[in-house]
Amino acid sequence: xxxxxxxxxxxxxxxxxxxxxxxxxxxxxxxxxxxxxxxxxxxxxxxxxxxxxxxxxxxxxxxxxxxxxxxxxxxxxxxxxxxxxxxxxxxxxxxxxxxxxxxxxxxxxxxxxxxxxxxxxxxxxxxxxxxxxxxxxxxxxxxxxxxxxxxxxxxxxxxxxxxxxxxxxxxxxxxxxxxxxxxxxxxxxxxxxxxxxxxxxxxxxxxxxxxxxxxxxxxxxxxxxxxxxxxxxxxxxxxxx
Length: 241
Ligand code: G3P
Ligand code: MG
Fold this sequence. Notes:
The chain is of the alpha/beta class. The chain is built from 9 helices and 9 strands.
């Protein structure tokens, strides 16, 4: 079972910052996950929430500020004074961290609250420009964005994100279409997911921070977990297997 560092190494470093990604890049884990929004001036930035309030010393919506305005805030001190001065990273800056590693990159398109017109096109273009196509999976709770991504770049792997317990998931996946399912982890163990796994579909689950849950997920055939503690979880899996 593969490990993805969720929002970078976000259990030990401030989530979705260059510090968290540099730490993830140092680790021998399969991949890294991060969240993308669009600024007022159309720049792709990596942050989880629509607002900057929780993870910075500022307030307000990403969509209402320019990149330069967002870069004036501190995105590290809320986590620890040791990370004072961490800025909001652009998607380009994050991809640069992994330009010379082998990590797989799960770019989550956070357009499920605000539609961020043109965001999918920009993300697809930057992936192409940086030659990262074979290492990327695009995911979203916004399944329209996944459909758009597939239309623009059919060769890119896509994944539909779900919090819910699903019925007939294969039919729905084909309708989007999406290549993989990224599920809230308790739902991955439900009977409806068995047919997905038996059909050979990739299922990854979030967010798994406790070792005790890995065995059931591995036994069920889940391909990967997203975790805030990638080093701890990778060490545990290496020792167990
Ligand atoms: O992509 C997996 C996971 O990150 C989805 O939930 O809210 O942490 O972005 P969230
Ligand atoms: Mg995410």
